[in-house]
Amino acid sequence: MTPEAEEFLRRAIDLAATARKSGNPPFGSLLVGPDGTVVAEDHNTSITDNDISAHPEFKLAKWAARELDPETAAGTTMYTSCQPCGMCAGAIARSGLGRVVYALSGDQLDGLKPGGGFAPVPEEGPALHDEARVPVDGYYS
């Protein structure tokens, strides 16, 4: 890891501390453009915004999808204090960001939580394939 990357991760950790001080879960992220400058940064506001999706990674992915052209987005790096959760990872993939560098892994984070991570929600499926494919068939062509 380069010294510059370490400094970006330290900034993400500082943003996580800011989130915690404001009463939110301790997560922070920043987006660095292809030229190495910070183009956006944010911290978790899920408690103060009363919004379970207000993770910094999710907010930055939405910002990038809206504000950056695809080529610029593909050249960015998100530095984040913790490995993105499934929701955020999906948003990052759909936004076209280039890569993610994180400090804590999801497993390391779960080790810091009493009782570990969230309990999985039971899922069932696939079902009704022939019916479910009708509105989707041809959309991605």
UniProtKB/TrEMBL annotation:
It comes from the Bacteria. Residues 3-120 form the CMP/dCMP-type deaminase domain. Pfam families: dCMP_cyt_deam_1. InterPro entries: CMP_dCMP_dom, Cytidine_deaminase-like. CDD domains: nucleoside_deaminase. This is Nucleoside deaminase.
